[in-house]
Amino acid sequence: MGRKILIVGGVAGGASAAARIRRLDESAEITVFEKGPHISFSNCSLPYYLSRTVPQAEQLLMMTPERFRKQYNIIAETQHEVTAIHRSTKTVSVRNTETGETEERAYDKLVLSPGGQAILPKIPGIDRENVFAIRNVVDIVRLDTYLKEHQVHKAAVIGGGFIGMEVTENLIEAGLDVSLVEAADQVMAPFDFDMAQILHKELLDHGVHLILHDGIAAVTGTGIRTASGREVEAEAVIMAIGVRPDTKLAKEADLTIGTTGGIQVNANFQTSDPDIYAVGDAIEVTNRMTGAPMRLALAFPAQMEARNAADHICGLSDRKLGFLGSSVVRIFDLYAASTGLNEKSAKAAGLSYDFVYILPTDRVGIMPEASVMHFKLLFEVPSGRLLGAQAIGRGAADRRIDVIAALLAMNGTLEDLKDLDLCYAPVVSTAKDVTNMAALVGLNILHGVYRQVRVSEVRKLVEENACIIDVREEQEFAAGHLVNAINIPLSQLRQRVSEIPRDKPVYLHCRSSQRSYNAICCLQNLGYDNVWNISGSFLGICEYEYARDVLEHRTPIVTAYNFH
Known about the structure:
Strand order of the largest sheet: 5-2-1-9-21
CATH superfamily of the largest domain: FAD/NAD(P)-binding domain
Radius of gyration: 27 Å
Number of domains: 4
Low-confidence stretches: none
Helix content: 25-40%
Structural class: alpha/beta
């Protein structure tokens, strides 16, 4: 008989490790223990059952114990919980959760893939029957059944991360009235605050009652109460605050826990015990951009960790460079994707950086489905090394982020991105793709061709009555503009240049920054050294201001919002 390989936990990490080991070693005795009823399921697809995008719960199941045995000769024991690891004897204690019986199982190699546990705060009412967390098929079926049997009309989703956003979208699609409560000042932590405002607007546009900077304090008989004392009606409460790594087994076995709270592993995904490996949501990994430890609860890293651990168990070696955390989420009509570092993480790493924020169309503008794509690109100063990117739009935001992710993996620079030869057809892109365009703008900023200010700085400029020149055409200006802006269209700029002061800062914008860039170049060539381009221009300003104006009841700084 071959080596005994025991795996704790199924789904992406454990099941993938088991299948890879079998492909490399036909003689190994492989057993997977899963404390739940399902060995492998599409956990990322769970929220889509609520809207019946996935019509049947059974479709969420990827593998059954019977198929695992027949196709891979792998034993999958569901409803079996590993309760203890005995390193000195290389055994584990396994409890049958249906019968309560416990037995000892020996291993040569042990793989831990326990995943994460939903964070449930210790607040009054958290144990009510209408409070749910979503981690597996049983959870989503239980929630769906409750919604149907109790004819729920109003729900509260707590947490604006991936799960919270997807649950919110699917509950709205299912016809419910949804409140989304987030303790931070924005949803979706991978995105910078300015980009998150676009997502806030999308939520508001689809009827979501968005509550920010106000966490949950209690579950009441009629809904929830927030930390500020606000009462929110809800017949069902879905907790999506996040997950914490399930490290109970590892801690009790005296395995080393990393600084982020995940199980510490080496480049081969071995724990502090070389015969015990760990993969998935429970471990600590390396940030590819900074080299710092981090936790990353995403499907692709879990599968690659499982593959690498399996390879090492079977005598193969792989190069480990860390992870970028590339991700995408659909939020109603928008796709929001990101990779690498955002401004928060770049600052935390002590990096000197700048950024590009552009709003080109995702394909040739005359094409019927062309739409604006918000694209933010971070780069290191002065090297021009790419650090990360965020894209939000109705088109292929994920494809643009995939381009950046590939270059990040190769330490690519703005120059590399500028020259990247990408596919073009009018129905899918522009001749200079969004990513190429971002590189060109980034090089202008890096080399000081012009200076920029952020959309987040415009409100202060308006309040201080700074000199702001809107170079859009007169009819565009009439359809909405900054309250104190002066309209000098680009087509009239050279004839009216005398109206632009030389003795104080002048801030220019257009619709999306292309015409204002041309105006900046013109003025600088005429000797102006006091001009700044407003990054994102009027579309970016409107997207940034709108949700905050609505949620904070602020007086708008625009006469009318423009979003297209």
